[in-house]
Amino acid sequence: MIPLRSPQEALRPTAIALGSFDGLHQGHRRVIAAVTAAAGNEAAAIPTVVSFWPHPREVLHGEARLRLDLPAEKLHLLEPLGIEQLVLVPFSRELAALSPEAFVEQVLVGQLAAQRVAVGDNFRFGAGRSGDSQALAVIGARHGIEVEVLPMLWDGEERVSSSRIRRALGAGDLAEARRLLERPYRFSGLVVRGRGLGKQLGWPTANLQVDGRKFLPLEGVYAAMASVAGGPMLPAVMNLGPQPTVDPTAPSAVEVHLLDRQLELEGLELVVEPLQLLRRQQTFASFEQLAAQIAADAQLARALSAGIGVGEAPANEGCDPAEQQNP
């Protein structure tokens, strides 16, 4: 796996794809390809993705910004693209106050010894977002940095963007999110001990502790696939959100039931790939009605997952699972 480094630890000189790259969608990969394609001609420059952490709006405006890909997940996605290191620049008010010229001099030249930089044409940087991609090209030229600006990628009448992918996930449209990402949307979580209410209903679930910085899809019940400890993808049904029938006061949770499998999962990392939203949550008059609905959900999930990835290990997208326990 490629390394995650601070600017001080980065291998230099660098050929940099610069931006947030949240989701690593088609448009992002075009910017990255501009760096990796030139790597053969610039053997000394290390193909590098440079992003900021935390998100600038978190620092400047106090806005929580959930990520489609957490840094550890991004490492696994970048490696097959030819990137050799991911560098996260700590974003602070001091960094935000730098002029465009100072940012290039201090960060791109001083810290990263950049020889080549690729950005999208909507890239903004410097105090008050005063610098744009064209300004970067002009300033970079003064320092001997070749800057390539890639046009935005359009899909129909709307550009491909992380916001568009979030909107699809927020509507529970996994098919659209997958189309825009050109890969499955996945997340992972540590299986922690629950209250055993699912088991009492005849549907034991793995309760997942998911990183709070990860963007999750619309609350509801999903057909899904799940993988334990890097093993094969297994059919599952997932509940994401509150439990209005069992405990209306309980906080939102992620619960996964592996279909036709009985495994001891506590303490393991589970990778989940939601396939399709089956229904939104609803309140049932009795536990018996809830159990009957779960059975119907499971049957539909079983049909939807038939032949989808069964027996295939998933691409590792950020989880570092423990060894699987014996069932």
From TrEMBL:
<dbReference type="InterPro" id="IPR023465">
    <property type="entry name" value="Riboflavin_kinase_dom_sf"/>
</dbReference>
<dbReference type="GO" id="GO:0009231">
    <property type="term" value="P:riboflavin biosynthetic process"/>
</dbReference>
<dbReference type="InterPro" id="IPR023468">
    <property type="entry name" value="Riboflavin_kinase"/>
</dbReference>
<keyword id="KW-0418">Kinase</keyword>
<keyword id="KW-0548">Nucleotidyltransferase</keyword>
<keyword id="KW-0274">FAD</keyword>
<keyword id="KW-0285">Flavoprotein</keyword>
<keyword id="KW-0067">ATP-binding</keyword>
<dbReference type="GO" id="GO:0003919">
    <property type="term" value="F:FMN adenylyltransferase activity"/>
</dbReference>
<comment type="pathway">
    <text>Cofactor biosynthesis; FMN biosynthesis; FMN from riboflavin (ATP route): step 1/1.</text>
</comment>
<dbReference type="GO" id="GO:0006747">
    <property type="term" value="P:FAD biosynthetic process"/>
</dbReference>
<dbReference type="Pfam" id="PF01687">
    <property type="entry name" value="Flavokinase"/>
</dbReference>
<comment type="pathway">
    <text>Cofactor biosynthesis; FAD biosynthesis; FAD from FMN: step 1/1.</text>
</comment>
<keyword id="KW-0288">FMN</keyword>
<comment type="similarity">
    <text>Belongs to the ribF family.</text>
</comment>
<keyword id="KW-0511">Multifunctional enzyme</keyword>
<protein>
    <recommendedName>
        <fullName>Riboflavin biosynthesis protein</fullName>
        <ecNumber>2.7.1.26</ecNumber>
        <ecNumber>2.7.7.2</ecNumber>
    </recommendedName>
</protein>
<dbReference type="InterPro" id="IPR002606">
    <property type="entry name" value="Riboflavin_kinase_bac"/>
</dbReference>
<dbReference type="GO" id="GO:0005524">
    <property type="term" value="F:ATP binding"/>
</dbReference>
<dbReference type="InterPro" id="IPR015864">
    <property type="entry name" value="FAD_synthase"/>
</dbReference>
<feature type="domain" description="Riboflavin kinase">
    <location>
        <begin position="180"/>
        <end position="306"/>
    </location>
</feature>
<keyword id="KW-0808">Transferase</keyword>
<dbReference type="GO" id="GO:0009398">
    <property type="term" value="P:FMN biosynthetic process"/>
</dbReference>
<dbReference type="GO" id="GO:0008531">
    <property type="term" value="F:riboflavin kinase activity"/>
</dbReference>
<dbReference type="Pfam" id="PF06574">
    <property type="entry name" value="FAD_syn"/>
</dbReference>
<dbReference type="InterPro" id="IPR015865">
    <property type="entry name" value="Riboflavin_kinase_bac/euk"/>
</dbReference>
<keyword id="KW-0547">Nucleotide-binding</keyword>
<dbReference type="InterPro" id="IPR014729">
    <property type="entry name" value="Rossmann-like_a/b/a_fold"/>
</dbReference>
